[in-house]
Amino acid sequence: MKLLQAYIRIDTGVAVLEFNGDVTLGQGAGLLRDTIMRALEQGHKKILVDLEEVSYIDSSGLGELVGCKPLARTQGAEIKLVHLQKRVKGLLQITKLITLFETFDDEYKAVQSFQQPKSI
Fold it and tell me: Is 84 helix (H, G, I), strand (E, B) or coil?
């Protein structure tokens, strides 16, 4: 098991949250939630969660990710996902949670998607 690390950087006005390690019950899932919450507290409205270096996420990690979505919405923020590993993407598809998030394979396209006017 690989201990989770988190980094926040800004790309064209979008807070990119990079995670490296496993998102599992305890430290990993808590760090995922805390990092997203920190970005929200700093006033970021466009949050891109980069899971390129996350090879495993358990149900606790999925729960934290899904739980942050309505919290972000109440603050007028949006969370999108980029660089899902095959295993993580498969888990999101099996659980039907993939439908809750806009997902991207390319960070440039993901960042650009925040700039697009929302269609009603």
Answer: coil
State how far the Cα of 9 lies from the Cα of 98, in Å rounded to an integer. 24
Q: Which fold has domain 5-115?
A: Transcription Regulator spoIIAA (3.30.750)
Q: What is d(CA 2, CA 80) in angstroms, rounded to the nearest whole number? A: 24
Residue 27 has pLDDT above 80, yes or no: yes
Q: Is the dihedral of CA 60, 63, 65, 67 positive or negative?
A: negative
Locate tokens 């960070």: which residue?
107
Tell me the pLDDT tens digit for each residue of 44-101: 999 999 999 999 999 999 999 999 999 999 999 999 999 999 999 999 999 999 999 9
Please list the residues that pair with 46 across neighbouring strands.
78
Rg of the chain (C-alpha set): 13
